[in-house]
Description:
Elements: H1 2-9, H2 11-51, H3 57-79, H4 86-120
Helix pairs in contact: 2-3, 3-4
Amino acid sequence: MKYVYYFLKNYETILNACAEFIVLTLELIGILIIIIGSFKAIIQIFSKLKKKQKTNIVINLGNTLALALEFKMGAEIVNTVIVRDLRELGTLAIVIALRAILSLLIHWEIKSERKSEMNDSPEQTPKIDSDT
């Protein structure tokens, strides 16, 4: 019973510490994804110049940035647990809205890049005879 009382008395402190740890971890994962994806894009640029490969670097980097942004938005959502006043909540809402807009723009860019890639090199589809 003593431990339950101690836990409930310090619940807010424990929750804040856990939330801060989760926020920092998710932010770090997002940053690492951006760094790794950027290095991968740089390597693809050089290999594309050297070997004339047909990889679309914009799509790959866009997917990487979208994934990293999802982790960073997750961190901001967890961060709402430790907001202390209305001003922080307003700032947090603006950050989440901006990241959501960035995510939508990245997905739109990926979609338009895939469309232009398909228009540049259309695959040859077999023609189906309609003799029936």
